[in-house]
Amino acid sequence: MNKNTILLINGPNLNLLGVREKKIYGNITLELLIKKLKKKSKKLKINLKTFQSNSESKLIDKVQQSKNLVNYIIINPAAYTHTSIALRDAILSVKIPFIEVHISNIYSRENFRANSWFSDIAIGTICGLGIQGYFLAIDAIYEKMLNNNIK
Ligand code: DQA
């Protein structure tokens, strides 16, 4: 396995980034965001793979298939953050360390968003910093890769 591989997973409705609720999620499309994240990753010699799905089962399948193929996961589970014990179990089963990212501050919105089924098992959670959270997650993992001497 390439030892510098990150899988970025985006959950439901994040395909509509730049179109949906722009005041909360901003103007940038997912396509452009991924382009920028890949550019940054390339500079850091990180192999960034990406996956987005609106389907809980497809997200679970992707996580299961990633076992031994990726070193870290960055995941924005979107609405499944608050509902999917199945996706949580999938991540636990593959034992891939991960960072949870949310564009909005899930703690300052509706009450039902304040619960995450991922935060307690994540390396860390970044939320409320807009799309910058994704870039910060890559920086954090890069540091870990350096510290683990796998780069
Ligand atoms: C989100 C927050 C979730 O509550 C919401 O369902 C999303 C996006 C975020 O990035 O802020 O779809 O994960």
Fold topology:
Blueprint: E1 5-10, H1 22-25, H2 30-43, E2 47-52, H3 56-65, E3 72-76, H4 85-94, E4 98-102, E5 124-127, H5 132-147
Parallel strand pairs: 1-2, 1-3, 3-4, 4-5
Bound molecules: 1,3,4-trihydroxy-5-OXO-cyclohexanecarboxylic acid (DQA).
1,3,4-trihydroxy-5-OXO-cyclohexanecarboxylic acid binds next to loops.
Structure write-up:
By secondary structure, the chain is an alpha/beta fold. It has one domain: 3-Layer(aba) Sandwich (Rossmann fold). Helix content is 36%, strand content 17%. A five-stranded parallel beta sheet has the order 2-1-3-4-5, covered by helices on one side. The longest helix has 16 residues, at 132-147. The structure holds 1,3,4-trihydroxy-5-OXO-cyclohexanecarboxylic acid (DQA).
Widest sheet, order of strands: 2-1-3-4-5
Report the uncertain regions: none
Q: Return Rg in Å.
A: 14 Å
Question: Using DSSP, what is the number of strands?
Answer: 5
The CATH architecture: 3-Layer(aba) Sandwich
What number of structural domains do the residues give?
1
Number of helices: 5
**Unique bound compounds:** 1,3,4-trihydroxy-5-OXO-cyclohexanecarboxylic acid
The first-to-last residue Cα distance is 13 Å
**Any idea of the CATH topology?**
Rossmann fold
Binned, the helix content reads: 25-40%
**Superfamily at the CATH H level?**
Dehydroquinase, class II
Give the CATH class: Alpha Beta
Roughly what is the average pLDDT, rounded to an integer?
96
The percent range for strand residues is 15-25%
Structural class by sheet pairing and helices: alpha/beta
What is the chain-wise order of helices and strands? EHHEHEHEEH
Largest sheet: 5 strands, parallel
